[in-house]
Specification:
Layout: E1 3-4, E2 11-16, E3 19-21, E4 26-28, E5 30-34, E6 37-42, E7 50-55, E8 60-63, E9 65-70, H1 83-92, E10 95-100, H2 111-124, E11 128-134, H3 143-149, E12 153-157, H4 170-180, E13 186-190, H5 194-206, H6 214-218, H7 222-238, E14 241-244, H8 253-261, E15 266-270, H9 272-276, H10 280-285, H11 301-310, E16 315-316, H12 325-328, H13 346-355, H14 361-375, E17 393-397, E18 402-403, E19 422-423, E20 426-432, E21 435-439, E22 442-443, H15 471-480
Parallel strand pairs: 2-7, 3-8, 9-10, 10-11, 11-12, 12-13, 13-14, 14-15, 15-16
Antiparallel strand pairs: 1-6, 2-5, 3-4, 5-6, 8-17, 17-20, 18-19, 20-21, 21-22
Helix pairs in contact: 7-8
Length: about 475
Amino acid sequence: MSEVANMGDKVDLVINGGTIVSPDASYKASIAIKDGVIHAIGAPEAMPPATQILDATGLHILPGAIDVHVHFRDPGYPQKEDFASGTAAAAFGGVTTVFDMPNTLPTINNAEALADKHKIASAKAYVDYGLYAVLGEDSIEHVDALIDGGVIGFKLYMGNTFGRIPSPTTGAMLEAFEVVAPTGKRISLHAETNSIMERREARLRASGRIEPIAHLAARPAVVAVEAVARAAILAEWTGARIHVLHISSAAELQPLAEAKARGVDITGETCPQYLLLSEPDYEKFGGVVRVNPPVREKPNQQPLWNALMDGTIDVIATDHAPHAPDEKTRPDIWTVDCGFPGVETQMPLMLTEINKGRATINDYVRWSAESPAKIWGLYPRKGTLTVGSDADIAIVDLKREWTVDDAMIQSRAKISPWHGRKASALPIHTIVRGRFVMKDRILQEEARGTGQSVHAIQQMPPAMPANTDSTMAAITSVQKA
């Protein structure tokens, strides 16, 4: 296999000896990189002269992962994480693009807050990024300004989580979908029904339940089933494009699959915690494992793996959500902050499962790179190793035995349920647009601030037709008045 651009000039980097991985094939070839993009792929002897040559013998060359769900806590909570530490963690995890969530302080719900966050990210980021804006009752009127300001998409909180962003009513949610649908921007959903959770949590608190497993009792799978089904109906009605975040249960796969079968533009993600952790981990890790949605019972795991394999779930992401150790170890589970780091450990842990035969490395590339790039309109600039694409590359040792140590991760949150877990794969080098951001497991400090927002390369599809009467046009005209 060989792809070659104009070979006349010297290139910046040639990578020799590695095995290139795509969703459809794995093959040995060299890659030449020039001016941040892939210049040629082919036999070593066919490569042009290069300023730098990297020997990747014995290693696998993957498109850098695109983690569409991280919380870098910047601005507002830099003691938990900021864009420098968060994107450094991404670099060590073979992640070359991240989408950061808007539940910072201030909440990203207007153009001014978005502009300030872009300044912070551009000054600190080691990898490329997209920024989400909140879609809620107080931000519907700002949709156009937020798009003009540069967002990758919108985040709508159907259920409560860190930051206590109010969940919109179903009426406001319908209106929000109607306003965003014509823009083509995707709406990512924290799909848990808030009223059910708040009622159950109140009853558990009143009964004196404070142990870690009570968190799971407060958020049964039905909260996700109802939320996914309701969101799919609204998306079908309006033509909105939606994405279901952090799918945690087997039960919510049914409304997701049914919506896809009806032609709804709906996609979904799951995370390593739902594939690899289960109910006994509450006893093992206590509040450290608290996350929204909760880690669930073990019978949920295999259906989630099956859904990745058959395409019902499209993407692997992390919901990287760092907190300080004292915030994760309080004795009352209701006072423990929700979430834990994951952007650095996702690729090693998932590839460890690949090594065990759970799926193929080609499947993993589809879930971690190609699918997110296609879903968010970044393909083929991102998510693929082809001539002309951005040289976003993770070079991985699939035979590296190691053990996760919270003290050694790049995130400021030195506490996670991954501590002590054995892995058999590790990213050795990470390259973003042709520049090393992590090389030989060493952060390249000069790469700080070289990350760029990807919203400018995002290509939006035509708006889907809505199954509405004049309601959509009427509300939209009122909204813009």
